[in-house]
Amino acid sequence: MKTILIANQKGGCGKTITAITLSTALAQKRYKVALADADNQKSALQWLKQRPSDCAPIQSLNWSQEKAIGDAPKNLDYLIIDAPGALHGEHAEQLIAECDAIVIPLQPSFFDIDSTRRFLKHIQNIKRIRKGKVEIYLIANRVKSNSASSKIIQEFFEKVEQQPTAWISERSLYGQLAAQGLSIFDKTQKNAYQLQQQWQPLLNVLIDDPTTWF
């Protein structure tokens, strides 16, 4: 089983949408997937409750209480963890101890960039990361093409010397589908397909699967 943590200490950066999008992509490929919600707001759990029964199955895990962290079925292929906002200290170490990779979404705003910079600095002190046992991937989220903010976020990536694995455009379709318990990977229409393509670079580095995704 590979465990992927979706985290940042900044709230509202798109962690839950990232978690449900990755979970659905994997479920559509017929992997056994669970989505663990470690946030007290339980947004991912609410999304799963709305998910239609005829969609690709995703198991639901409630990790909102710290004592539940690590409790997962043994037969999973992938476990996606939706981390809480303001993740730090022992809680961060506890979740990172469970993961093989961390995906850090951030939006092109001063607050997201500043928060992400501090989050990256904090987690570098965690033993598991310091020893190189956890992969870290950044994704630029809700980006508007040719905007001044996209240039600002590019400067940030250059400063931290790590380019984003994927650039994800801002689209209302994400929210519209989430309200129905769905994601873009549940759809085959052209507009969904175009968005799916933006996630392919992240899927390529996270998932060892040479078969065609779309």
From TrEMBL:
<dbReference type="InterPro" id="IPR027417">
    <property type="entry name" value="P-loop_NTPase"/>
</dbReference>
<dbReference type="Pfam" id="PF01656">
    <property type="entry name" value="CbiA"/>
</dbReference>
<dbReference type="InterPro" id="IPR002586">
    <property type="entry name" value="CobQ/CobB/MinD/ParA_Nub-bd_dom"/>
</dbReference>
<protein>
    <submittedName>
        <fullName>Chromosome partitioning protein ParA</fullName>
    </submittedName>
</protein>
<feature type="domain" description="CobQ/CobB/MinD/ParA nucleotide binding">
    <location>
        <begin position="4"/>
        <end position="158"/>
    </location>
</feature>
<dbReference type="InterPro" id="IPR050678">
    <property type="entry name" value="DNA_Partitioning_ATPase"/>
</dbReference>
